[in-house]
Design a protein that fits this description.
495 residues, mainly alpha, two-stranded antiparallel sheet, 2 strands
């Protein structure tokens, strides 16, 4: 007879599941409350969502580093904790935008907040494991929820954006599943650490299957991270989403995607599979260059910011190519600063939203709409200029520090050519960021009597933009401590 397997709760270490369970239970609680009592004020769900995320954040901060749980599929290492903190802080900043009186259509539904929490839980699962199956579960949970959030914006372009995102997401999921299946067939494991060990013992033979698995994985993560040539869905999806959600999408799902890319590709690069290294380098450089060139000719600010986000993704992929502790630390510092700046910039598009005044038949946010903004809404113009200068990497604003540390990591690892390419692309990007500043400060208002702007923005909206602007402006005061903390977490986790 087979001996029964005894599994103790202590050995399962269920504490590693606590952050995700908090988000999932919170989402279910919102749905149950809505079933029991209809037509409650939606501010209740906003505050409940913020409370749940705050408790979730506290649970993450209370985790021990480098522990496994739940049959060893959960991995709560330094990279998992740092990335979850970024995701949760960004989510807490995002939710208060639904408190204002001038709300988007989707904020009327309690299901919106439940789906948002399910998405956060999916992103947390992605970053807190090195198990390919659980990564896939988290990826699809987050993606399916995000498709719904986009469609709830209830515009024709929103439905189109959701369908495009769903189609591209399904293709990416298929690539991921095929790549995972090949790696499992080669090694007999779905855990990235064991896959690396098994492939190393076999000297990466047969190389054809390794090549196929890597290509599928690069394709899958390339779609999620908007890397060239898998980026074509991004500007249309951002354009069809609400402005704050587009800003959120440009950061949080990419944090999770980059964590998976670090776990998956860095072991290949460090094991000597140099064609993976070279392929990622070419894709990253093409992403930066082509996205910047395309952003130069955009007529819509939202699409310009979308291509800008693609360029930033290429910039950060080079940190994975470099693969040192300093490069990985710089990547997460970049995201921590980029989160405030980019969300602030997209949220400012909401400040300038209008229904009656139409400037362009095709675009909602053409550059002409911002002409003379300094005369109509001077504070808003100054804050938007602050975000543009930061995105351009102008010192001393926040994103300058993220860029300089990534470039420094490249120089330290003797990637001088890459460092020059990154610096040149930052200079090119400055043109289209400064273009918006020129429109706001140096041009006359076009058919605009001031009614196109939300002058009486809600307190929650003012608070969120104020926090983003403060971090962008005052980042020099806390970049050092944040980088030291991130570097320590990377070192204790072996990254």
């Amino acid at each position: 007879m087979l001996e029964p397997i005894n599994v103790s709760l202590e050995s399962l270490n269920l504490g590693t599941l606590t952050p995700m369970l908090i988000a999932i239970c919170g989402a279910l609680a919102i749905l149950i409350i809505d079933l029991i009592k209809k037509d409650l004020d939606k501010s209740l769900y906003v505050m409940l969502g913020i409370l749940i995320l705050a408790v979730d954040l506290g649970s993450v901060l209370g985790q021990q580093v480098n522990v496994r749980g739940f049959f060893d599929v959960m991995l709560m290492d330094g990279i998992a904790i740092v990335s979850q903190v970024i995701i949760l802080v960004g989510s807490i900043i995002f939710l208060p935008l639904a408190l204002g009186k001038k709300r988007f259509h989707e904020y009327k539904y309690p299901e919106y907040f439940a789906m948002f929490l399910f998405m956060v839980a999916g992103l947390q699962f992605m970053v807190a494991t090195d198990n390919l199956i659980l990564i896939f579960v988290g990826l699809e949970t987050a993606s399916l929820a995000l498709y719904t959030l986009i469609a709830l914006h209830n515009r024709e372009r929103s439905f189109e954006a959701a369908i495009k995102y769903f189609t591209m997401g399904a293709l990416a999921a298929a690539f991921y599943a095929l790549g995972s299946a090949i790696l499992y067939a080669l090694t007999g494991s779905v855990e990235i650490g064991q896959i690396a060990q098994a492939l190393g013992d076999r000297n990466f033979e047969p190389i054809v299957l390794i090549l196929a698995a890597a290509i599928f994985m690069i394709g899958a993560l390339g779609f999620k991270l908007s890397m060239v040539p898998f980026h074509t869905w991004t500007p249309d999806v951002y354009e069809g989403s609400s402005a704050p959600l587009a800003g959120y999408m440009s950061i949080m799902p990419k944090v999770a995607g980059f964590v998976v890319a670090i776990r998956l590709f860095e072991f290949m690069i460090q094991s000597g599979i140099w064609w993976v290294h070279d392929t990622l380098m070419v894709i990253a450089v093409l992403t930066m260059v082509l996205a910047n060139i395309t952003a130069l000719v955009q007529n819509d600010v939202k699409r310009m910011l979308a291509f800008s986000s693609i360029s930033h993704a290429g910039f950060l992929m080079l940190a994975i190519v470099i693969g040192t502790t300093k490069a990985n630390s710089a990547l997460f510092l970049y995201f921590a600063l980029f989160m405030f700046t980019n969300m602030g910039a997209f949220t400012m598009l909401w400040i300038s939203r209008h229904k009656s005044n139409k400037f362009h038949n095709r675009y909602d946010h053409p550059f002409e709409k911002f002409a003379g903004m300094i005369r109509i809404q001077p504070v808003g113009a100054v804050i938007m200029a602050l975000f543009m200068l930061s995105l351009a990497g102008i010192p001393p604003f926040s994103l300058f520090w993220g860029k300089i540390y990534v470039i420094s990591a490249a120089v330290d690892s003797h990637y001088i050519t890459l460092a020059i390419i990154m610096a040149l692309n930052s200079a090119i990007a400055a043109y289209y960021y400064l273009k918006l500043i020129v429109y706001m400060f140096l041009k006359d208002p076009a058919q605009n009597d001031g009614t196109a702007y939300v002058k009486n923005a809600s307190k929650s909206l003012q608070t969120v933009i104020g926090i983003c602007a403060f971090v962008t402006l005052a980042s020099i005061m806390f970049v050092g401590p944040i980088l030291d903390t991130i570097t320590y977490m990377m070192q204790v986790s072996g990254f």
